[in-house]
Amino acid sequence: MSVQCATPPVLSAITAIVSDADQHELSCDGEIVDMADLRQVWAHIPDPRDRRGRRHSLGLLLALVQAAIVSGATSYAAIRHWVARAPREVLAQLGARQDRRTGHYQAPHPDTVCRTIAQVNAASVDAAYAAHRASQLADLYDDPDELIPMTVDGKTQRGTAHGEAPARHRLGALLAEDGIMVATLDVGTKSNEITAFAPLLDQIPHVKNVVISADMLHCQRKHAHYLHRRGAFYLFPVGGNQPGLFDQLDALAWKDTPIEWTTYDRGHGRTEIRTIQVRPAPPGTRFPHVKQVFLLERHVYDLHWKPLSSVAVLGVTNLTATHAGPRRLAELVRGEWSIENKDHYVRDVALGEDRCRVRTASAPSILATMRSYAIGALRLLNHTNIAEGTRWARDDFMHPLIALGLTM
């Protein structure tokens, strides 16, 4: 698919990425961009600086910041420190300028790096990273009929609150089983997660066989229509924002419906039992394209079987019983909660997002995108403990480049 790379940057070729998930390249003004190569993705993010006086490419600046974050940099001060100490072999690998007389590679000033990052359009960075991750989906899921669990949820960057200015909020789509963020998007102060849902998923060109789960807020008819139109599946819990649907499901004969799958988990000083009951969607169900409805219950006890909490969740899905039986539905529902501990918690604890006080222009959004990408890059290297992964990355300046696939 050939597109124009003109402004505005949000509608650049990066956001109009290929519609075929098996295709890793796109054409932009006659130039082939390999979306699987992070360097080429960075190179096509619009540079906000005047052409006159540019000494270092935007791709180099983005690469240095991303490498620093993989190494566990949690603030501008830590990023500046990493950039200032980057050795010549790292600069050479990332494409830094080389002095013709001395042959030395020239590092950009750390202040230049941070100042420029704040000027870059955050939406173009989000689209670029989403295009890159989307190009990898075919490699992560090589079976065209395999269901791909993906969960959508928002996160507030608490450190960006200042005075009367509210904290910034972002929406993300995470591969639930792998813990890899695919797409992210800013939620404007005059908007909300509901209106950002479709634009977020529009960044992913191919969502056939993707099962989108989200919290009750996103149990919306327009979301169901949108996903059905794109060939995706939905799995939504039903709550008070859909009172008619909730009452209809709550009135079903669940006492006569057998429990078809049960899980027991013991750890952290408690025992957790989950059960699921599934029924075909009754005629006249007040939700588009629904095929099955379910009741999931979770009971938590201490180690002496004293009840601690009980939760019951009603839900709807357009997955048929052939696509997903009770056991698979239970797994998909549980995956919806994975974004909290596989991304949000890690960004706050291992990468210090809530402690970060960077508030200038686009910088908080871009740093959040890079944190999520760093987590995914380390997970693809089988680092299940991200804090340990960042320590590994700090052991050698080349390790972050290995994690980012920049050593070839």
TrEMBL record:
Residues 167-363 form the Transposase IS4-like domain. GO terms for biological process: DNA transposition. It comes from Acrocarpospora corrugata. Residues 43-131 form the H repeat-associated protein N-terminal domain. The chain crosses the membrane at residues 58-79. The keyword Cell membrane does not apply. This is H repeat-associated protein YdcC. The lineage of its organism: Bacteria, Bacillati, Actinomycetota, Actinomycetes, Streptosporangiales. One of its GO terms (molecular function) is transposase activity. InterPro entries: ISAs1_transpos (IPR047647), Transposase_11 (IPR002559), Transposase_11-like (IPR051698), YbfD_N (IPR032806). Keywords: Membrane, Transmembrane, Transmembrane helix. Pfam families: DDE_Tnp_1, DDE_Tnp_1_assoc. NCBIfam families: transpos_ISAs1.
